[in-house]
TrEMBL record:
Regions that span the bilayer: 92-110, 122-142, 249-270, 282-301, 321-340, 356-375, 387-408, 439-460, 505-529, 549-569
InterPro entries: AB_hydrolase_fold
Protein name (Swiss-Prot/TrEMBL): Integral membrane protein
UniProt keyword terms in alphabetical order: Membrane, Transmembrane, Transmembrane helix
Organism: Streptomyces violascens
Length: 775
């Protein structure tokens, strides 16, 4: 976030006296300090806590009591919310929940059509089912590591268990009480069960800290915009307590049931081959009960979506309390059943149920295909909207979430298998992970090879765009002497910023290729029941060599990908540059409420939006003054959402100033239902006045395209082409930062305040020499 300058900047017209004026600054991606935002060494917290708060300069604490001091400038306040997303380094662990966050995004990417109702409802149901499959996949991966690779294979093999002292009393070599396979599985079940409990605990704790804030009870919008009233103005949009509680209970139950199924399947298969009819009946009864419980979990997930038209305080006690407890009780029964004495039971091969990864991958593919069909149907009902991938952005992102989940779970299984067996995976005493995980890893090199020409294409296109833009750069600085190096630098910055507009194409290629290669991996694993290297042993030498190379490279790619998640997560919250790099996706992802996956990182907007709405409403009611909410980057999205939560009377006393704003460029294309042309036009009509500043060198912000006099730009960047009296040193290319450094910022803010004071929106579009009007 760039530094805020005083309101009365050079060249800015004076603001007429009309009561106190307040400028509420909201920073963007990466965060900042209140001292930098307010350009003051001493700041005071006006209201808030250590997580998010509003600050003023120390000398402005009593501004309302001395309005004569602020006749020509507003009182600046800074809302600092960076601790909601990037607080301490421990939150780097949230990056491990990236697949859950991505699938939650898919829920909000629905095409903007409101009919047919069955398609809208089915879209949400399919996304929630895919999200449930990701929870099952994560817990199944933990079961694979703890139950199969460790307790079943390594502890059940004397050569493997002797090399690891920590297996201790569970090793088959010790012939102790715990050496029976069922008892080893019962003990190892603590790991996936503990993971499930940890996810439940984090979801419940972050809900209390982030998403339990009571929203402001906004009044209905005016009648002339009621038809296009966006969901942001609904009382319950930023308070999805009931749905999150239901989903949290269902996903917690799914985790416990997955663990119970892994423990029960092995014991039940042994009992079916043994002569004990009692144990065979108990196994069948327990498996049937687990299946019924799984159906109940799916029914809970499918039954009800979000309730946004009212503040939903009610909780489904029977579901939220009894479903997780019942599934935990079934897990306890499964542990007791598996731990019963079976003296002749010996573990060999892989743990029964390893084909469940294949069924899970197949189910995900079917659900994504169905989601694409529904999204396409909805898109045909709203053909005029500008949406990413022609309305298929949601299915593409859902596929990306499944691919990320596969890379992370497969990477963990591969690396643990190598570590436990000292790299000798194909030894007779150790079979390693299921063949499907190896097949999925083996197609990663093919995916990377496919993406290389795509990356080269965009690189060449960007280079050609920069060359073609050189004449337009000089046209923006008509009085300057041409400098080839400087012109290329500016043109290159503009061309690089334009890559953002090609992101949907790149994501579509990645998602489509992942779906096809994933299907090929599934067919290969089911057809051969062997890893690629073994399946190609009898093939020609080039094919065998390619299969061996793909398997080796894929194994390392999955492991490297998982380590990359952890490393970048840690670095992102210790290094400001790294935080800014990954912050774009992270802040966009955690802006949206948890509507599909309850274990996703918490939604900071459910805290930030009520904070801003309450502050704007209470200050304007108490003082009767004018207020400009000034948002940069992601802060502009928060500002727009908060304005919609205000009562209509308050909205008429509020002006909106956005800069580096991704509302249309990113949110409008990927989330057209909530930031499409109709909701943005309605916001333009509801708020008293709105100005949006943007640059062509900004890779994130852009025009909001609502018509009228909202957009101001593109602003010149850099401010000076060469050395001038005002800029004796070369002016930097600012791109997404330091919008306040442009004189246009001070002028537009002063004009907004003047419009609020007069009660008549100012239609002036003259930008002077600092920028070109976009009309």
């Amino acid at each position: 976030m760039s530094r805020a300058t005083p309101a009365a900047q050079a060249g800015a017209p004076a603001v007429e006296s009309g009561g106190p004026a307040l400028e509420l600054l909201v920073h963007g991606v990466g965060g900042t300090t209140p001292q930098k935002m307010l350009d003051a060494p001493r700041t005071v917290c006006v209201t808030g806590d250590d997580t998010a708060a509003i600050y003023r300069r120390a000398e402005d604490t009593d501004a309302e009591a001395h309005p004569e001091r602020y006749r020509d400038r507003p009182v600046p306040e800074a809302y600092v919310w960076c601790n909601l997303t990037s607080g301490n380094s421990a939150r780097a662990l949230w990056l491990l929940l990236l697949p859950f966050m991505v699938i939650n995004l898919a829920h909000w990417m629905r095409p903007p059509a409101k009919e047919p109702h069955w398609a809208v409802r089915l879209y949400g149901v399919l996304v929630r089912l895919i999200a449930l499959s990701l929870t099952v996949l994560l817990v199944a991966a933990a079961c694979e590591v703890a139950l199969d690779l460790t307790a079943w294979q390594c502890a059940g093999s004397a050569p493997c268990s002797r090399s690891w002292y920590w297996l201790g009393f569970t090793s088959v070599a010790h012939h102790g009480w715990w050496s029976q396979p069922g008892r080893r599985l019962a003990l190892a079940a603590l790991a996936p069960a503990g993971l499930t409990f940890l996810l439940w605990y984090l979801s419940n704790r972050t809900w209390s800290a982030y998403e339990s804030q009571q929203p402001l009870n906004a009044e209905p919008a005016d009648d002339h915009v009621e038809a296009v009233k966006p969901a942001f103005s609904s009382p319950g949009f930023w308070y999805g307590r009931r749905l999150v509680a239901r989903l949290r209970a269902a996903h917690t139950a799914a985790g416990f049931l997955t663990t119970a199924a892994g423990v029960t399947a092995a014991a039940a298969r042994y009992d079916r081959a043994a002569t004990s009819a009692v144990f065979e009946t108990l196994g069948l009864l327990l498996e049937s009960t687990l299946a019924v419980a799984g159906v109940v979990v799916v029914w809970v997930v499918c039954r009800r979506g979000r309730t946004e038209t009212r503040l939903d305080e009610q909780l489904d006690r029977a579901v939220t309390a009894w479903l997780p407890v019942s599934s935990l009780a079934l897990l306890a029964l499964a542990v007791v059943y598996a731990a019963w004495d079976r003296a002749d039971w010996v573990s060999s091969g892989t743990l029964p149920g390893d084909r469940s990864f294949g069924f899970l991958a197949f189910a995900q593919g079917v659900l994504i295909t169905a989601l694409a069909a529904v999204a396409r149907h909805l898109r045909r009902r709203a053909p005029g909207e500008r949406t990413a991938l022609c309305g298929l952005g949601g299915p593409a992102v859902a596929m990306l979430a499944c691919a990320l989940g596969g890379v992370m779970t497969g990477g963990v299984a591969q690396r643990v298998a190598d570590w436990v067996d000292h790299g000798a995976i194909h030894r007779a005493s150790f079979n390693g992970p299921p063949a499907l995980l190896t097949w999925q890893a083996s197609v990663i090199p093919a995916l990377l090879a496919l993406l290389i020409p795509v990356v080269l294409f965009f690189a060449v296109r960007t280079w050609r765009t920069a060359r073609a833009d050189a004449p337009r750069v000089m046209a923006d600085y008509p009085t300057e002497q041409p400098d080839t190096a400087r012109t290329r630098q500016i043109a290159r910055a503009r061309a690089m910023a334009g890559l953002t507009d090609h992101a949907p194409v790149f994501l579509g290629i990645v998602s489509g290729a992942s779906l096809l290669l994933g299907a090929a991996a599934l067919v290969g694993a089911w057809w051969t029941s062997e890893v690629p290297e073994q399946a190609a042993d009898r093939a020609a030498t080039p094919i065998a060599f390619a299969a061996d190379a793909a398997q080796s490279l894929g194994s390392w790619c999955t492991g490297f990908g998982f380590l990359l998640f952890v490393t970048w997560g840690r670095r992102a919250y210790k290094d400001a540059a790294a935080r800014r790099t990954v912050g774009i996706l992270w802040d966009v992802g955690t802006f949206w409420p948890r509507a599909a996956h309850p274990f996703a990182p918490p939604c900071y907007a459910e805290r930030a939006v009520p904070d801003l709405a309450w502050r704007m409403n209470t200050w304007t009611e108490r003082t009767g003054g004018r207020l400009v909410i000034s948002g940069h980057s992601q802060g502009s999205v928060l500002a727009a959402a908060a304005v919609w939560q205000l009562p209509a009377a308050t909205r008429r006393r509020v002006a909106l100033l956005t800069y580096g704003c991704p509302v249309e460029r990113l949110y409008g294309r990927w989330f057209p239902t909530y930031f499409g042309p109709a909701p943005l036009q309605a916001l333009h009509q509801e708020v008293h006045c709105w100005r949006n500043l943007w640059r062509t060198t900004d890779p994130i912000g852009g025009p909001v395209l609502t018509g009228g006099d909202v957009d101001r730009g593109p602003l010149l960047d850099p401010l000076a082409y060469g050395r001038t009296r005002e800029h004796p040193l070369p002016a930097p290319i600012l791109g997404h930062s330091d919008y306040q450094a442009d004189p246009a910022f001070g002028r537009e803010r002063a004009l907004l305040l003047a419009e609020l004071a007069s009660g008549v929106p100012n239609q002036r579009a003259d930008q002077g020499s600092s920028g070109r009007s976009s009309g």
